[in-house]
């Protein structure tokens, strides 16, 4: 005789066995699905890396959009895109399988071909004079008349070594920047400020625009466009017909600014590229993070001197360029204020005025130095300034604007 309680216990045990078996099957199924999901993600990441390697190749030219299968299978579909973004190149890679998608946007940097050059001064049959607590460290391309110590305002050169590095002869003309990038920059100026420009507005609180979307081009239809208090981030170009104004309350990241004159007030911090046709004026204690760029491109018909004026105690990481195609009497001028540090490259097809205690960690190419003291103006003099190529980070990447012969590209920074 079997008690009824035994049957009750048997039912409970059976239910437990069913629950345990069901749980084991569920765990196995979930594990299998997660494993397949991880395998698919790993495959997409590998495809993404392969797509990035293709976009970084020199043979993959800008303004190229390619949708392809890496290995001839539907699971290996990628979209590859390369386009100009100011002086840099922008890479976009997307890999997908069914509904799963991975994508990356990045700026492409050019590896500097000459990692030793600190100075290239055009040969105008006059020597370079160095005075005070100045420093030149790296390979210097100088006029055949050489370099000499000079006595300026009751002070002479405080060191015995004139150049800490090798000295080579410079040429009459500076090496030209990349013509294609200059043409692209000029076309942006014409597009953003020409008769067919499209006016627009910015959100006062914040404007963020992904690089995976079409570029947002905004022409501010006001006499002087004031961006005080605006936050703008991403795939945005802003232009105006006269003066574009930024101050410490402006927050800009990876944005391109285009105007005849751009004025950046004291205390501004951001990451921008500026393309101007007249001048760029920067106040004191401005910080432009890497990779920023300041370009003044003189029109062939302009009868005035284009300028970049940088205030005191600024920090600029990137490229500074003042350019005219045909040399004129009013050559472009770049003025770098006292205590300001440039981390990157300075190219001036004209005059460069370096204030005392200023410096360039990187390279400088120019036609003529100008040095102003309280009583005099000196040509081809360095007074209490430092040009130090080894001080530039070994991870610094340039653009093809000043390194057109480079054949090696790398990811400069990630975008969104």
From TrEMBL:
The keyword Membrane applies. The keyword Transmembrane helix applies. InterPro entries: Trimer_LpxA-like_sf. Keywords: Membrane, Transmembrane, Transmembrane helix. The chain crosses the membrane at residues 6-31. This is Uncharacterized protein.
């Amino acid at each position: 005789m079997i008690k009824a309680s035994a049957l009750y216990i048997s039912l409970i045990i059976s239910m437990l066995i069913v629950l345990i078996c069901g749980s084991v099957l569920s765990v196995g199924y979930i594990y299998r699905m997660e494993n397949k999901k991880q395998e698919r993600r790993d495959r997409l990441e590998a495809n993404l890396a392969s797509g990035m390697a293709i976009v970084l190749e020199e043979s993959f030219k800008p303004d190229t959009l390619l949708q392809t299968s890496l290995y001839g299978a539907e699971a290996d579909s990628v979209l590859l895109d390369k386009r100009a973004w100011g002086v840099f190149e922008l890479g976009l890679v997307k890999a997908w399988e069914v509904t799963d998608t991975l994508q990356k946007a990045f700026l492409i940097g050019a590896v500097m071909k000459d990692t030793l050059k600190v100075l290239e001064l055009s040969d105008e049959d006059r020597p370079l004079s160095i005075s005070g607590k100045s420093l030149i460290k790296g390979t210097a391309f100088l006029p055949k008349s050489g370099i000499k110590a000079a006595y300026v305002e009751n002070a002479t050169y405080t060191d015995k070594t004139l150049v800490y590095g090798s000295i080579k002869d410079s040429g009459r003309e500076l090496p030209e920047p990349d013509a294609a990038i200059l043409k692209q920059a000029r076309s942006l100026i014409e597009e953003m400020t020409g008769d067919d420009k499209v006016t627009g507005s910015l959100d006062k609180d914040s404007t963020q625009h992904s690089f995976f979307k079409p570029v947002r081009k905004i022409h501010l239809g006001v006499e002087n466009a004031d961006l005080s208090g605006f936050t703008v981030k991403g795939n945005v170009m802003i232009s105006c017909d006269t003066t574009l104004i930024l101050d410490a309350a402006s927050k800009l990241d990876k944005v391109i600014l285009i105007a005849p004159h751009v004025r950046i007030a004291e205390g501004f911090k951001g990451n921008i590229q500026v393309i101007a046709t007249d001048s760029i004026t920067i106040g004191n204690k401005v910080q432009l993070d890497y990779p920023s760029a300041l370009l003044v491109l003189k029109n062939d018909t302009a009868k005035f001197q284009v300028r970049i004026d940088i205030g005191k105690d600024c920090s600029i990481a990137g490229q500074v360029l003042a350019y005219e195609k045909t040399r004129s009497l009013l050559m472009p001028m770049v003025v770098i204020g006292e205590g300001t540090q440039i981390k990157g490259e300075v190219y001036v097809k004209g005059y460069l005025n370096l204030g005392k205690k200023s410096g360039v960690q990187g390279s400088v190419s120019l036609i003529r130095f100008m040095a102003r003291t309280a009583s005099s103006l000196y040509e081809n003099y360095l007074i209490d300034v430092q040009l130090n190529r080894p001080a530039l980070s070994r991870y610094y990447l340039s653009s093809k604007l000043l390194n057109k012969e480079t054949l090696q590209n790398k990811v400069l920074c990630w975008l969104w």
